[in-house]
Predict the 3D structure of the following.
Amino acid sequence: MFQLLAIAGIITLDPAYVRRFEDFLAIEQLYNGLVTLDDSSKIIPAIAKSWNISEDGLTYTFTLRKDVFFNKSELFGITKTRRVTASDFLYSFLRILDPTTASPGSYIFKNLKQSNTKFDGIIAEDENTLTLHLSKPQPSLIYQLSLPYCSVVPHEVVEHFGNDFSTHPIGTGAFYLKKWKKDVKMILAKNINYFEKDKNGISLPYLDAVSIYFIQDKHQEFLKFKAGNLEMISGMNEEDKDQLLNPDGELNNKLSDKFTLQKTDWLNTEYLGILMDNHDKSPLQSKLIRQAIGYAIDRNEMIRYLRNGIGTAATKGFIPKGMPDFEQYTIQGFNYNIEKTKTLIKEAGYNEVDKIPEITLSATPEYKTLCEYLQQKLERVGFKIKVDINSVSSMNQRIAQFEATFYRKSWIADFPDAINYFQLFYSKNFYPEKGSNYTHFNNQEYDSLYELASIEKNDKARYTLYKKLNQMIQEEAPVIPLFYAKTLRFFKKNVEGISCNSLNMLNLKTVRVKQNSLNLK
C-alpha cells in the first residue's frame, strides 16, 4: 500500500464544492473530466478522446471514449455500473451552474450561451458527442475544463445521497473511496475497470491501494517519513528544512541514500499585498513608497538563507515561472536596488525630519521568519515595520474585513493560463463580494485591457496584452512579488513513476512501489 500524509484534513470529495488544495489532490484520484494536463501542463485527452474548437472560438465539440465506466454502486442496478455518456457531462455541468449548488466552479461557464430561463449552451448531441456554445470567446476554457469541478458524476448517485454525495463519491477515476475516517485516515482502492493503459498496454493504476493519513504537525510528518512509515511527503517547514536540504536546495547528503527529491516550478507567486482603498493615510497609499519597498528586498539572499535555495526571485513581474510561454510576457520587475529605494522615498516626500510612519505587516505563523527578515531589511532604509502574526482563519477574516492593509499572501493558479493571475486586479472582482481582488486595485485602463485579453483568441496578440497588464501591475504596485515557488516532493528510493507538473498535481496512476528493495525502517 502506498502511504502518504496530508497536513490538513480533506473536507469534501464532491468535485462541485472543492476549494482547498488537499481536496484537489484526493479528487484527482477519484474522478475524470473531458480533458486533463500532462507533466508539461499541456492539455491532453481524458474521457474526451478528441475535440474541435470553431474558428470563432464559440463552439467546442468533444467526442467521448466509449470504454469509460463509473465505479461500482448498487444504485446502478444489477450491473452495478454503467458507461459514461455525453448526457452525464450535461448533468454534471448543469449541476455546477445550478444556483442552489453554489459551486465555486460556476465561473468556468460564465460565457456559456443561455436564454432567459435556462443554460442552453450545453448539448448532448448523442451518447458520444458533447457540444458547448459560448456567447463570446474564452481561450482559457479548455484549461478550465481540466479542473476538478468539471469531473463527470452520475445523477443516480448524486440524487440519492444529496449533500452526502461527498462521503459516498462515485466517479470514473483510477481509484475509489474504500474508507474515510475524517481527520484520521482515508483509503483509496484500485479501480480494476479503469480505462487508461500505459504505453505497453498494461492497465492502470499499478497500485492496489493508497492510504492517506492526516496530521496537523508538519514536523511529525517529517519524523514519520524519516522513519520509513510514509512513501512520500511534500513541501517543508522551517523547523526541518536544514535536515531535508543543503544550502543549495539539494537533498541533504544524510538522506540521499534512502530518499529522492523531486523539484519543479510551481504556479505559485508569494507576495506582499496592499489594500489600495485604505483611507487611513497610510504611506502605502503612495505608489512611490510601494515601489521603494519592492526595490529594497534582496530576493536572492532571502531565498538562499531563508528557504535553502528553494524558489526563484520574483523579478519578472507577478506571473510565476512555470507558466506556459512565460518569457513571452515577462517584464523587468523589482530588482534589488537600495539607491533607487532611497530616491523613491525622497520623491514621496519623506526625509530625516519627516520620517515614514509605522507600517504593520500581517502574516500567519508559517511566515513569521520571512516577515522578520523583511522587517530588518526595510528598517535599514528608513521604514518602521511592525510584524503582526495571526492564525490562518484570523488572517482571512482580517483581509475580508479590510483590517489587514499590508500582508503576506500567495496565489496558486487553478489552471495554466496567466489570466488566472490578472483577474486578481480586475475591479469587478472585488473581494469578498465578487471575487479575488484582495487589494481592491481599481484602474479603468487595466480593466479594458483585461477584458480584451480574456477573449483574445490569437496567442501572440493575447500575450502582448498580458505584457501590458503585467507592466501596469509593476508600475502601480498593488502587490510586491517576493518569489515564485517550487514544488518539493520527497519519496523513498523504492518508489517510481511519480509525475509532477507546474500545478503540483499528484498523479498516482503510474506510481509503483518496488518490494524488498530497501529496508528503510
Remarks:
- Residues 234 and 489 are 4 Å apart (CA to CA).
- Residues 32-158 form a domain with the Dipeptide-binding Protein; domain 1 fold (CATH 3.90.76.10).
- The radius of gyration is 24 Å.
